[in-house]
Write a structure and sequence with these properties.
mainly alpha, 602 residues, 35 helices, disordered N terminus
């Protein structure tokens, strides 16, 4: 047995406190106590013999401790019998040690029963192990309770948690940690609201993590930090991460690095990531790689990504693929994406599929998109939708779009909304368009606005004949889309402003749309300027609209040049309007063209 427990408990005496290293006062006090016990032992004091033997055993003086322990044991001291067993076990005489432990355990020593139970378990005799560990545990011995719980848990016995809890409640830190892990998993499985005896599992798990962490359990400190970070208590989370990291827990050092990074202290974050990465933490190595990549140091970034990969973190290969792709090293990017994808990295599978698709290998891309999507990649599901839509397989495409939309993919929700509008299912279309618009899609906001606009009743008239205008929901969505640069929405918002008589606001939106390339925006801006008496400037915008294929703008230009007497130019724009249409415009433009032709030939 490598570790029997705390020495004071093991030696069945709480009368001595191990002196702090370097504390001369306490060392002198212990030396004086040892002298006192030695003098008493020489007079035949059995208790003194036992205590002196325990002191020497604790100090590692086996030769000095053995005669005192044997003498006390012969006189019937059960603590001495237990400690003699410990001494013999340390010398390698396991069977003889077990004999003395049995004598002490039968005499009622809980520590000896624990040691004897451990002895039997190491030799594969589980029934005997359970018997003696139960004897120890039922006497309130925390090490016995923990060892019994460990044995029962190994066998899948439901009574394990009861004894693990007993050991934890009596201060056993490993028991507290393991019990907390059980409760933590239960909280995940049942939901945080699931309660046992009125206490939520997660709340109870936190209590035991805290108990173990306070006793120096570094993994408990890590888990406690994670719970606190998730709850938003970042300062306390950072303290526990720091405690765990200083005790050598690489994952805590990595987590502390992320906490510092999020707080804006990248330099300190890098220090902790470096410490964790050097201990073999792949996540920290990836974080260092990303940090150096952001700083424009690709060679250092690549070195850390390789270190992450060597540590068994598949993200290292994926990040190497991203790095190579950014540098235009397509063949190497494909190699690293493949390595990560074959290891089950879903985003690498998606990235590999995109790379293959860009290279024209649609057949090679599809199975990787499918693999990534089946593994839960939302982007891959959306990309499969695009792939099938491109082939004209709209039913299959819609199925993948719906899958991605259900996982919150904005553009997928937009595509589902468009498909439902096409099918005439306005209710479903509106639901998906709202999701996409809420996710930031300008196109979805515009299309949602058009759906709501079509339902909008006429504005009520004021009793004095003035219209009463209150901003409707559809206008709000038009404005949201317009503010995101959606040109048709900008034109629509401009039209609504013009209808209200707000010429300045209308002109602003029309100009934004026109400058972004909207021919309708340019045409409407021209109309607005013409009404305000700025026909030359209006002609500039109509020219831009007509050059972009706007028939009405071409007709307006034909009329402008006809009024100016520039008949040939007017005829040219009339010809242009005839070809552009629509029908009504073509008819008017044809009549104007013929009239101008007659005028020119007269």
């Amino acid at each position: 047995m490598d570790v029997m427990g705390d020495k004071a408990t093991l030696f069945e005496t709480g009368r001595f406190v191990q002196p702090s290293q370097g504390d001369a006062g306490e060392a002198a006090e212990e030396a004086a106590e040892e002298l006192r016990q030695r003098l008493a032992a020489e007079t035949g004091d059995v208790e003194a013999m036992s205590v002196l033997g325990a002191m020497l055993l604790r100090r590692g003086d086996l030769d000095g401790a053995e005669p005192h322990l044997r003498a006390a044991t012969a006189a019937g001291d059960r603590a001495a019998a237990n400690n003699l067993g410990v001494l013999l076990h340390q010398r390698g005489y396991a069977e003889e040690a077990a004999g003395w432990w049995r004598i002490a355990a039968v005499a009622g020593s809980a520590a000896a029963a624990h040691a004897l139970g451990r002895h039997h378990r190491e030799r594969g005799d589980e029934p005997a192990a359970e018997y003696w560990l139960r004897q120890s545990a039922e006497q309130g011995h925390p090490l016995g309770a923990y060892a019994l719980a460990d044995l029962l848990e190994h066998r899948g016995d439901g009574g394990a948690e009861e004894w693990m809890r007993a050991a934890a409640e009596r201060g056993h830190r490993e028991a507290a940690y393991r019990l907390a892990r059980v409760l933590d998993r239960r909280a995940v499985d049942e939901g945080e609201d699931g309660a046992d005896n009125g206490v939520a599992p997660l709340e109870e798990a936190e209590r035991f993590y805290r108990q173990a962490a306070a006793r120096g359990h570094r993994r408990a400190a890590l888990q406690l930090g994670a719970i606190l970070e998730k709850r938003g208590e970042l300062k306390e989370a950072g303290r526990w991460y720091l405690t765990s990291a200083k005790d050598g827990e690489a994952r805590a050092a990595c987590a502390l690095g992320f906490l510092l990074r999020d707080a804006g202290d990248t330099e300190s974050a890098a220090v902790w990531w470096l410490r964790a990465a050097q201990e073999g933490d792949g996540n920290a190595a990836n974080a260092l790689g990303a940090l150096h990549a952001e700083r424009g140091e690709p060679q250092t970034a690549e070195r850390w990504y390789r270190a992450a990969m060597d540590a068994g973190d598949v993200n290292g290969a994926y990040n190497l693929g991203l790095l190579c792709a950014e540098q235009g090293r397509t063949a190497q990017a494909e190699q690293w994406y493949r390595r990560a994808a074959y290891a089950g990295h879903r985003e690498a599978a998606n990235a590999l599929a995109i790379l293959l698709l860009q290279g024209g290998d649609t057949a090679g891309a599809e199975p990787w998109f499918s693999k990534a999507a089946e593994a839960g990649s939302v982007d891959a599901a959306f990309n499969l939708g695009i792939l099938y839509a491109g082939r004209g397989e709209d039913v299959v495409a819609l199925r993948w779009y719906e899958r991605a939309a259900a996982a919150g993919h904005t553009e997928a929700a937009l595509q589902v909304g468009i498909a439902r509008l096409r099918d005439g299912d306005e209710t479903a279309a509106e639901r998906h368009l709202r999701c996409a618009a809420g996710g930031g899609s300008a196109e979805a906001a515009y299309r949602l606005a058009t759906v709501l606009d079509a339902r909008r009743p006429p504005e009520p008239a004021h009793e004095l004949g003035e219209t009463v205008h209150e901003k409707t929901e559809c206008e709000e969505w038009y404005e949201r889309a317009a503010s995101q640069g959606h040109r048709r929405a900008q034109v629509r918002v401009g039209m609504m402003a013009a209808a209200r008589g707000d010429v300045v606001e209308a002109a602003r939106w029309y100009r934004l749309a026109a400058e972004a390339g909207s021919r309708n925006g340019a045409f409407n801006l021209g109309l607005l300027l013409a009404r305000e008496g700025s026909e030359p400037e209006a002609a500039v915008w109509w020219t831009r609209a007509a050059d972009a294929g706007h028939g009405r703008a071409a007709l307006r230009l034909a009329l402008v040049y006809a009024r100016r007497g520039e008949l040939a130019e007017g005829q040219r724009w009339a010809d242009r309007a005839v070809s552009l249409g629509p029908g009504e415009v073509s008819e008017r433009a044809a009549r104007l063209r013929d009239a101008l032709r007659e005028e020119l030939s007269a």
